[in-house]
TrEMBL record:
Stated name of the protein: Acidic leucine-rich nuclear phosphoprotein 32 family member
Biological processes annotated in GO: chromatin organization; regulation of apoptotic process
Family membership: Belongs to the ANP32 family.
Alphabetic keyword roster: Chaperone, Chromatin regulator, Cytoplasm, Leucine-rich repeat, Nucleus, Repeat
Role, per record: Histone chaperone that specifically mediates the genome-wide removal of histone H2A.Z/H2AZ1 from the nucleosome: removes H2A.Z/H2AZ1 from its normal sites of deposition, especially from enhancer and insulator regions. Not involved in deposition of H2A.Z/H2AZ1 in the nucleosome. May stabilize the evicted H2A.Z/H2AZ1-H2B dimer, thus shifting the equilibrium towards dissociation and the off-chromatin state. Inhibits activity of protein phosphatase 2A (PP2A). Does not inhibit protein phosphatase 1. May play a role in cerebellar development and synaptogenesis. Multifunctional protein that is involved in the regulation of many processes.
Location (main, coarse): cytoplasm
Subcellular location(s) per record: Cytoplasm; Nucleus
InterPro entries: AN32, Leu-rich_rpt, LRR_dom_sf
Name of encoding gene: ANP32E
Region feature Disordered, mapped onto this chain: 142-199
Database matches in PANTHER family: ACIDIC LEUCINE-RICH NUCLEAR PHOSPHOPROTEIN 32, ACIDIC LEUCINE-RICH NUCLEAR PHOSPHOPROTEIN 32 FAMILY MEMBER E
GO cellular component: cytoplasm; nucleus
Coiled-coil portions: none
The keyword Nucleus belongs to this UniProt entry's keyword annotation: yes
Length: 226
């Protein structure tokens, strides 16, 4: 009994939990209970679940990643068990209809939602319809309504591991290229033009020298005849 109490106490201190690639038993991940009262981030990628119905009550959970499973609906359970979610990753699941994500309307703090690889994203007007259906979200599949990528400053708020990447890296690369030394091609072109000028100059000089030699030769010939 003492060990059980101690285990419960330790679980209540856990803030982030990753159980990806583990096999679930009948839709339930063994050991994942409502004892994790302070859990803020939970990753259950590729654990073989088809439903979230057996997810324990996690009132402080903010980030939930359940990508690469077989979930097709039943998302209303999240409103009851994880009411404070700010980021939800459902990529690679079997969600096909917009009606399946409609329950997420009641997750008032939800800012980021990922549905990459789900059939529901196939229609061309999916993004417009999703933002209309879920007006509280800011980012859908990593981009906002104007197709701007999620900035790095908000990465920590939306995900537990910065899965959106850092778009500022690309800007740094561009700056490095602009700030770098001038291209060798420009130098070669300048060198080439200088070489052409130098060669034509030498040719002109050579012609002048030849003319002077020829004139001097004629002068010597005339002196000899006289």
């Amino acid at each position: 009994h003492e060990m059980g109490c101690r285990g419960t106490s330790l679980n209540s201190r856990v803030v982030e939990l990753v159980v990806e690639n583990c096999r679930s038993s009948d839709g339930e991940v063994e050991g994942l209970t409502d004892e994790y009262t302070n859990l803020e981030s939970l990753c259950m990628m590729n654990v073989g679940i088809s439903s979230l119905s057996k997810l324990p009550s996690l009132p402080k959970l903010q980030k939930l990643e359940v990508s690469d499973n077989s979930i097709s609906g039943g998302l209303d359970v999240l409103v009851e068990k994880c009411p404070n979610l700010t980021y939800l990753n459902l990529s690679g699941n079997k969600i096909k209809e917009m009606s399946s994500i409609k329950p997420l309307q009641n997750l008032k703090n939800l800012k980021g939602l990922d549905l990459v690889g789900c059939d529901v994203t196939s229609p061309d007007d999916f993004r417009d319809n999703a933002f209309e259906l879920l007006p509280q979200i800011t980012y859908l599949d990593g981009f906002d309504r104007e197709d701007n990528e999620v900035p790095d400053s908000e990465n920590g708020e939306l995900t537990s591991s910065g899965i959106y990447g850092n778009p500022e890296d690309d800007d740094d690369d561009d700056d490095d290229e602009e700030a770098g030394p001038p291209d060798d091609d420009d130098d070669e072109e300048e060198d080439g033009s200088e070489g052409e000028v130098g060669l034509s100059y030498l040719m002109k000089e050579g012609i002048q020298v030849s003319l002077w030699v020829f004139v001097a030769f004629l002068g010597v010939g005339q002196s000899s005849e006289s």
